Amino acid sequence: MSFWPYYGLQRGITTTSWPDGAEDSAGITPGRPRARPTERAEEIAAVCPTQALKVVRQDGTDGVAVDFSRCIHCQRCRQGENALPWTTDFSWGAPSTSAQSTLGSRFTRSLQVLYVDAGACGACVNEVRLIDAPPYNLHRLGIFVTATPRDADVLLVAGPITDAMRTAISKAYAAMPEPKRVMGMGTCAINGGVFGESFACAGGLEKIVPVDLWLPGCPPPPLAIIHGLLSLVGRVAPAALEEQP
Amino acid sequence: MSIAKALQEWLQSIPKLQMQKRSEQWLQLLCPAEQLPELTRHLVEDEEAEFATLLVEESAKEDALSVHYLFYLPSTGNLIELKVEAPAGTELPAISDTVHAADWHEREAWDLYGLRFSGHPFLGDFVLHDDDWPEGLDPMRRSFDGKHRPDLHGSGVDWAPPRLLQEEGAMVFPVGPVWGDFNESGLWLLETPGEQIRYLHTRLFYKYRGVEKIAEGRTVDQGLLLAERFAGASAFAHAWAYCQALEQIAACQVPTRAQQLRIVFAELERIRHHAANIAEIAGSTALSVAKALAQGIVEDLLRLSAQLCGHRYFFGVLTPGGLREDLDESKLKLIKQTLPELDQRMQLLEKQLESSSSFLDRIEEMGTLDNELARIYGVVGPIARASGRSIDLRRNLPYGQYVFLSPDIPVEQEGDGYARLRIFFAESRISVKIILELLPFMAEGPVQSPCPIQEGHALSWVEAPSGATFHWLRCTGDGTITRLRLGTPGFRNWHAFERAIEGAAFQDFPIILATWGLSIAENDR
């Protein structure tokens, strides 16, 4: 005889109140750099191994702009004397240039998500697995995970889009009923990330199916994934992919 | 330690064999191809050597390959490298009939280099899928441009699953590549006459990113990003192995404090990896409260990681020569405060699971890999230790500060799902102990020493959470990678997985899969 319901109750409620309340627990996000005006823009941009930091000149002053679609949180610009300030936010979902309108109120209580792994390293998969764990509890927001494209409203794809997964992604997309939305998760899905475009990777989900929302991050933490899904429905304000100083 | 006299004498008795000591620990044998099967058989069967990995390198000479078979002796901690030259068009004798652990390595070398192994029964459709990749194009060859997708596509042959079972009503039931809720992509073909799974055919490499190929031509700094981000669940372990290779080439001494902190990070990663596996095992048996409790532990460990180093998965922590950042007193204190409580929650969860008979019914005598099969397939890590093989690189081939620590290595004999679950729990407990016992003895001083870029090559290894990983790195004087070999535990263990499924019932497949806890990203690379 086991007492699992009791063990569960014993642990108490651990679920975040976000998006209704604020969430600032330590360690829920890797954070990311902020753009800022600075005279040492060249030096700062040079430490970035993925060209996410860009030097911009406006009205005679230098600054560092951040391209979040390239940032992999390597933290090199967080350290040292030229360090950039880092945020601890997670509202990262940003509409793509070809984004359709938000799904609207009919989907606020029931949004079905199909997850497809197209070469993700395992960190994205692990973060996705945590969104329906008690600390985040996806279901309280009326979002559910489905294993079949026929039921899915959102196609969530992670990884640099490997060659062997192209067909699977196209077929899953074609099998989804209208209206449907596509969300590319992680730097890899946006532009191939550290893997880039190669003989084995398309290096970007947009080359296979139209994308509505980009979720930058390597990997994006669970709350960022939830932010992305909520912004597809129009329940939270989306972010931008770039920040200017 | 030196190599046993008997082995040395035996080796000297073989004609045409050139011996060369690469270091006190590492013996290189230049051997003619025809002697390979006998030599490798002797090493594995009589000397109980373990197969580490197979490394193929294209030499500067036109189309010639040099093939390195790497073995290690767990009892003495010696490395034995058999090096065979293979001029263009050569066929090497397959060693996989005696060293079965090399089976997938030979298939991989055929797919990626076009190196044929005579006597190998299953060459083809492995890393490169026949229905997707043009025949006769070998991507790891220098002449192949890895930057673009080849124009020519597909072999024109429709791929059909292999069928062994010839019975009335027999069928092949496919699982994947997109399946279940949140899973990695892979295809499993279950052959069944109705209820019992007779054979399983695993078709992986849907996630093949060609990491070893795209690393070539990149700088060693960019290579580190690849090494730490190709398998996120054991990112720190792989980044550590990669950094060790660079440090070996540069003869760089990593400061003691950095060595100790590396152990702290690596053991934290092990606990998180195992806790995530436990969550999946509980979830596969529909025990949702147990899954939630385990996931709570995983999440708290991820938050702890982010508080320590800024990243939940330890990305960007390591740098050749040490660590990018030190952990100050307050962070060490945070570990000291957090870990015992997490450990208690793990132990409580273990007790609760062990008293759930309905749960134990689902994993006991399930997905069994007996000791003999585990030896033949040369499985590594927790899977091996659950099948009675007491091998762990932290003890058998110690690196860094593990030389002084000699951690306990838990071993179970049954090789079933329950044994693996117990190993996951036991290893996490030991990892907590290692960290807490190390913290009072932290050395003072810097966490980074200079690691200049030099021309050279090195083999390095780390006991990743999922088992032994071997990295081979060759780079030029200006820091360009010319060969990066990632010999991962996932690649070793997936090979044996199908043997654990045979005879299981259909509904047990996801449970057995969860008890193995294997990463596909680590296999596919």
Automatic annotation (TrEMBL), chain A:
Region feature (Disordered): 17-40
EC number: 1.6.5.11
Cofactors demanded by this protein: [4Fe-4S] cluster
Keywords tagged on the record: 4Fe-4S, Iron, Iron-sulfur, Metal-binding, Oxidoreductase
Keyword Iron among record annotations: yes
Stored InterPro entries: Complex_I_20kDa-like, NADH_UbQ_OxRdtase-like_20kDa, NADH_UQ_OxRdtase_20Kd_su
Top-rank lineage group of the source organism: Bacteria
Claim: Protein biosynthesis is one of the keywords in the record: no
Domain called NADH:ubiquinone oxidoreductase-like 20kDa subunit: residue spans: 121-231
Similarity comment text for this entry: Belongs to the complex I 20 kDa subunit family.
Name of the protein in question: NADH-quinone oxidoreductase subunit NuoB
Organism: Acidithiobacillus sulfurivorans
Gene name of this polypeptide: nuoB
From TrEMBL, chain B:
Annotated ranges, domain NADH-quinone oxidoreductase subunit D: 299-449, 453-525
Keywords: NAD, Oxidoreductase
Listed Pfam families: Complex1_30kDa, Complex1_49kDa
Superkingdom of source: Bacteria
Domain NADH:ubiquinone oxidoreductase 30kDa subunit: from-to ranges: 31-148
Secretion signal span: none
Protein's recorded name: Uncharacterized protein
